[in-house]
Amino acid sequence: MNADARREIIQEFVDQNHDVSFAQIRDLFPNVSEMTIRRDLEHLSQSHKIIRVLGGARSVGSLLTTSEDAYTKRSLTHADGKKLIALDLKTPEGKDILLKLLERADVFVTNVRMKSLQKLGLDYDTLQKVFPRLIYCHFTGYGHRGPDADRPGFDVAAFWSRVGARVDWVEEGTFPVRPSGGYGDMVTGLLIYGGILTALLGREKTGRGTMVTNSLFGTSIWVNAQSVVCAQEPASHAFPEDIDRPGSPVVHDYPCKDGEWLALVGIGYAKNFPRYARVLGIEDELADPRCENEKTLADSGHIVDLTRRIRSIMLTKTSYEWEKLFTEADLVFSRLNHFKDVQHDQQAWDNEYLEEVTFANGVKNAIPRPPVHLSGYEQRRTVPLGRIGENTDDILHGLGYSQDRINDLRSRKCIQ
After folding, report:
1. Whether the Cβ atoms of residue 57 and residue 20 lie closer than 8 Å to each other
2. CA nearest neighbour of 47 among 1, 105, 148, 115
3. Residues 315-338: pLDDT tens digits?
4. What is the reported pLDDT for 66?
5. 311 or 64, which is more confident?
6. What's the sign of the alpha-carbon dihedral 334, 161, 146, 237?
């Protein structure tokens, strides 16, 4: 059985069952390697015939049946405000629609791998000849050059796992960090946004478009720059860090009696250690020459005993009791909140970082909003995301297509 036949069977199986595990797909082909099947799934995903999810695959059709499923809510923050059109770019008619849209576009953004774009004739070199003013933005998992340039890469792989944050941010021997979904995508997108604006400004001056690139891997290196540099010689800072050997005992996290945590943020040891020492009741440490500065603490090894002492003291009161004492002393600290707490944070609501959105099924959620505000412009309200292809007809009408023509294209599966 060749690859095309195998992929057709996989797609049909996913379409029929909507949500399937990798094990179920693997069982269809007992004589085919797991790596081959994973390549098949990636090919079908890149062709927009299935949707890859953790541990398996999901049918595109399952997302077309409702705009109120979990996918909608997860995607709302990232895709809000967009009009949704679904095209089969492998058909001449579908590609022609995209080219008509590009005639009116300032920016084209894609994360489809470059080899696939080249096959479709949608790579930068090809489009730049037709649309010389177009800003072409392409982002990848690992960058456009090197041995992994064509490697598929999701947020948790290329952004989190490749650079070290998942294991170097936690105590040695504990389970790796499990980040929020889309975290690296959001940060990468912010840098892409800045690159697009820079390119648009450049076009105003030169009249020419350009290609803007970025990757999850490159962004992770950039935002983890301090740790990446400190891990090198001559500093050779050890990661993960020893929880009993912080750089400063008052720039550290401590558990409290109620099981909650507080972060002490006494940056500036000479000024702030005495202030924290008085609230914690360890004024005797101030006369100890080993506590003169962070270096003497580290060199003497006293940092271990002092950190453990503070930890034991913090465990004698609840986080709320310590909050009151630290606030009265005008010390910098923060509660280590939980995600569930954000929806109740008045500071977030007062600054319009959250917005209550009601979905068609009546469910209300506090949806995060872009935190950048421009005083001269009113921020657009958040609108629940529609289904894939929600605005196909409206967009095509705007391009001059008749309803009969649209119906014909849909019947031939050029559009959805």
Report:
1. yes
2. 115
3. 999 999 999 999 999 999 999 999
4. 43
5. 311
6. positive
Asked if residues 136 and 199 have their Cβ atoms less than 8 Å apart, the reply is no
Q: Which carries the bigger pLDDT value, residue 40 or residue 263?
A: 263
Q: What is the mean pLDDT of the chain?
A: 90
CA–CA dist 254, 38 (Å, integer): 43
> What pLDDT does 302 receive?
97
Which residue is listed with tokens 């030169």? 206
SS3 for the chain is: CCHHHHHHHHHHHHHHHCEEEHHHHHHHCCCCCHHHHHHHHHHHHHCCCEEEECCEEEECHHHHCCCCCHHHHHHHHHHCCCCCCCECCCCHHHHHHHHHHHHHCCEEEECCCHHHHHHHCCCHHHHHHHCCCCEEEEEECCCCCCCCCCCCCCHHHHHHHCCCHHHHCCCCCCCCCCCCCCHHHHHHHHHHHHHHHHHHHHHHHHCCCEEEEEEHHHHHHHHCHHHHHHCCCCCCCCCCCCCCCCCCCCEEEEECCCCCEEEEECCCHHHHHHHHHHHHCCHHHHHCHHHCCHHHHHHHCHHHHHHHHHHHHHCCCCHHHHHHHHHHCCCCEEECCCHHHHHHCHHHHHCCCEEEEECCCCCEEEEECCCCCCCCCCCCCCCCCCCCCCCHHHHHHHCCCCHHHHHHHHHCCCEC
Residue at 155: amino acid letter: D
pTM for the model stands at 0.76
List CB contacts of 61: < 8 A, sequence separation 6 or more: 15, 18
Per the model's pLDDT, the better-predicted residue between 285 and 150 turns out to be 285
Scan for tokens 């657009």, then name that residue. Answer: 380
Residues 25 and 57: beta-carbon distance below 8 Å: yes
Q: What is the pLDDT of residues 281-321, one digit of tens each?
A: 999 999 999 999 999 999 999 999 999 999 999 999 999 99
For the chain, the farthest-separated pair of C-alpha atoms sits apart, in whole angstroms, at 88
What is the rounded radius of gyration, in angstroms, for the C-alpha atoms of the chain?
Answer: 27
pLDDT at 202 over 70: yes
Q: Helices 302-314 & 269-280, crossing angle to 10 degrees? A: 40
